[in-house]
Amino acid sequence: MRxxxxxxxxxxxxxxxxxALLPHAAQLFLVREVLVHPSRWVxxxxxxxxxxxxxxxxxxxxxxxxxxxxxxxxxxxxxxDDVLGQMLRPSPRYGLLPxxxxxxxxxxxxxxxxETPSRAAGWILLHLARHPQAASRVAAEAxxxxxxxxxxxxxxxxxxxxxxxxxxxxxxMYPPSWLLAxxxxxxxxxxxxxxxxxxxxxxxxxxxxRDAREHADPDRFMPERWLDDSGSLAKPGAFxxxxxxxxxxxxxxxxxxxxxxxxxxxxxRYHLSEPPGPEPxxxxxxxxxxxxxxxxxxxxxRG
Length: 303
What we know:
Elements: H1 2-14, H2 18-36, H3 50-76, H4 83-88, H5 99-112, H6 115-130, H7 132-142, H8 154-158, H9 161-173, E1 180-183, E2 188-190, E3 193-195, E4 200-203, H10 205-208, H11 252-269, E5 270-273, E6 283-285, E7 291-293, E8 298-301
Helix pairs in contact: 1-2, 2-3, 3-5, 6-9, 6-11, 7-9, 7-11, 9-11
């Protein structure tokens, strides 16, 4: 799943240059996984540990592969219609982005296109396995999609109302970014509490999404809560899976589109089920995100 989402994300960013950059993107993801793994020792940030040196090498390798792509596109004038192409175009307000600014930004953006969606996809597949009626409804809705996924348009995506509701419901119950940090720029009154300027405030979407004041019967999986009486999408209550405000995730639309289509195409093709046994086929981890580590499911083709 991670590999498939990485291909989608890197193609969205770099289009025809994606194949050359995909291996470097995968290495950047592995670096993050190693960095967040608990260690016996907590070293100050300035200590050049082997893991940090490895991260630096992989970031350098990525930028070394990306730099000639940027220069070739600029020199040829064929900037491309992908994200990199948009970054290479001059802004009416700020002019041309320096090359180094692009190189500094894209490693993080690249990993973000598939890191969090991969965690969300695990929860979505698990819920398709646990709720076969919901999966069948998604499959019926997905029957309207073109046989060639490359021909899918925004109109097709807009027709997947229940599928989008199911994705939103999974993200509500199991937000991959289960804990957010924000810094208070000035003294603020929050309810009965005074937040001093410079304080770090932790916001937990997991608990906020299970607040009965915002979501009726919050521990129940119910995609219908995201639909109004006509079956159109609605947005009930607080939803923080992608953050909110000026620091919300810039890739929200992309993530929702990818997860919705992935859910529809999977349910259309396969019945998913959990393997038999007393223990679940996964472990819950919270390192840098809420994920289903080691998830194992059985897939059988739909007739």
